[in-house]
Structure formats: structure tokens, C-alpha cells
Amino acid sequence: MEQARRDRDAEGRARNARPRDGLGRPLPYGAEGVARQPEGVERTGDETVREAQRLLDAGMPFHAHEVFEDAWKSGPEAERALWRGLAQLAVGLTHAARGNRNGGATLLRRGAAGIAAYADSRPYGLGITGLTAWARELAERVEREAEPVSAAGNAPRLRGRVSDGSDAADSRP
Predict the structure, then answer these.
(1) What pLDDT does residue 86 have?
(2) What is the pLDDT of residue 6?
(3) Residue 168 has pLDDT above 60, yes or no
(4) What's the predicted TM-score (pTM) here?
(5) For 156-169, what is the mean pLDDT?
(6) 1 CB burial (10 A radius; 0-12, 13-18, 19+)
(7) Residue 17 pLDDT > 70, yes or no?
(8) What is residue 4's predicted lDDT score, i.e. its pLDDT?
């Protein structure tokens, strides 16, 4: 009986080599996919926020989640819940864009709850209050509507508007 050969990365770990689309879904071997985020990249908090925002704006919340996950795994213990919550928001948007209403709503709410404790400190200029409101509103809409949402069209602004003193995370129509 012949065993199926597993894809391996350069270090020999099992890793699916199939190309992925912008929402992280596997495509058939040989198909044109989008570049994957490298794993294990250590960034400053500001670099993490900038890179994640770039990916969210591009409609790639799955990839933004991987950036947040790197910060969650390598960052200071006091920030782990922040990065985990932001990763959950990005995965929630990913599921909502894929049409997984229940998973999207659940992760959006879980991520909002995870970052809420950081509202007063606003680490890295993040608009925590606005992000939690955005996540809860999107979760409600995802549960009501049958169609998947646009990932880029619903990407939040991670950093709140600080010039006018507000803490709002904008989503783009």
C-alpha cells in the first residue's frame, strides 16, 4: 500500500504547498495564487500594525491574521491577548468573506472581547473602541445577510482617528 507524500517546508515540517487565494483558501496545485506571508517574522508593534493594515486594505485578512499571529507568538506576554484578539478579528473577517456566517460572527465577537481591555491604553495608536464596535456591527450584519462580505470593502482602520480625539475604526463601504 503506497502512502501519500506530504508537502514539507525547508526545515522538513509538514506544510501544504498548494497555492492560496487572497482569503487563504487552497487552490489546485499549479494554479496562480497569492504570495504567502512568511512565518515567524519578528516585527515591532508598529511594523505589525502597518503590515496588517496593508493586507487588510488589499482584501487579504487571512494574511493579516498571520502577521498578528507572529506578534502574538513572539511579542511580550503583556501584549499577547491584544495580538490574539486582532488575529481573531482578521480571521472573523476572513470567514465572513468566505461565506461562513457563524464562524465569522463568532470570531469577530471573540476578537472584540479579547482586545476590549486595551481600550484605555490604545497601544500602537490602535482604535480599540472603534475596532470593537466595527467587529460587533459586522458580526450582526454577517448573521443577517446570506451573501459573503467583501474583505477589502469591510476592512477596518486599525488606528483610530487621533487628530480629533476620537477612537473610531473606520470600515470602508
Answers:
(1) 98
(2) 67
(3) no
(4) 0.84
(5) 60
(6) exposed
(7) yes
(8) 56
Compute the Cα dihedral for 128, 131, 135, 141 and give only its sign: positive
pLDDT, tens digit (0-9, with 9 covering 90-100), for 24-64: 888 888 888 888 878 888 999 999 999 999 999 999 999 99
Output the 3-class SS for the chain: CCCCCCCECCCCCECCCCCECCCCCECCCCCCCECCCCCCCCCCHHHHHHHHHHHHHCCCHHHHHHHHHHHHHHCCHHHHHHHHHHHHHHHHHHHHHHCCHHHHHHHHHHHHHHHHHHCCCCHHHECHHHHHHHHHHHHHHHHHCCCCCCCCCCCECCECCCCCCCCCCCECC
Phi and psi at 26, nearest 5°, equal -70, 140
Residue 77 neighbours by CB under 8 Å, 6+ apart: none
Amino acid residing at 84 = R
30-47 as b/e: b if 16+ CB within 10 A: eeebbeebeeeeebebee
Q: Tell me the C-alpha distance between 125 and 122, whole Å.
A: 5
Phi-psi region of 57 (alpha: psi -120 to 50; beta: other; left: phi over 0): alpha
- Partners of residue 126 on adjacent β-strands: 159
Say what the pLDDT of residue 172 is: 41
